[in-house]
Design a protein that fits this description.
GO terms for molecular function: DNA binding; DNA-binding transcription factor activity. This protein is mainly α. Helices cover about 50% and strands about 5% of the residues.
Length: about 140
């Protein structure tokens, strides 16, 4: 399974914020560290804010930080929510037009694999992703 860039960037933002702790960060700062388009990250941050996962503060001394403790943020549930409208293959979509659909067993097999994928990810939290904070800080030059 391939995650969308939006989900990938969302996870990177959350890891960055978890490493920084309570300290505020900016979209530009994160964009620079990951070499990702600032415009893309603005959309990601807006969505994470709407989901209640991060706090945003406006103004000269504004920024963003986590709204939840990293141990309370389940990675599998987050990815499931972010990827909810991204079908694995055409037959998963209501707009699919696969002629094999009535007889094919691929959809059932992929559904089982997708379920296992999310169940595995649901055993992890954001805290698990940042257990090696020292190395992460070093990698991000913090």
């Amino acid at each position: 399974m391939r995650l969308t860039n939006f989900t990938d960037y969302s996870l990177r933002v959350l890891i960055y914020l978890a490493v920084k702790g309570d300290e505020l960060s900016t979209v530009s700062e994160i964009s620079g560290k990951y070499d990702i388009s600032n415009n893309h990250l603005v959309k990601v941050v807006h969505n994470l804010s709407k989901m209640g996962i991060i706090n945003t503060y406006k103004g000269k001394s504004g920024g963003i930080n986590l709204a939840l403790e990293p141990s309370k943020l389940n990675i599998g549930k987050l990815i499931r929510e972010l990827e909810e409208d991204s079908p694995l293959v055409e037959c998963f979509s209501d707009k699919g037009n696969c002629k094999l659909n009535p007889a094919c067993k691929l959809k059932a097999a992929l559904s089982l694999a997708k379920k296992s994928f999310y169940e595995t990810l649901e055993t992890f939290t954001l805290a698990d992703m940042v257990k090696n904070k020292a190395n992460l800080k070093s990698s991000l030059s913090l």
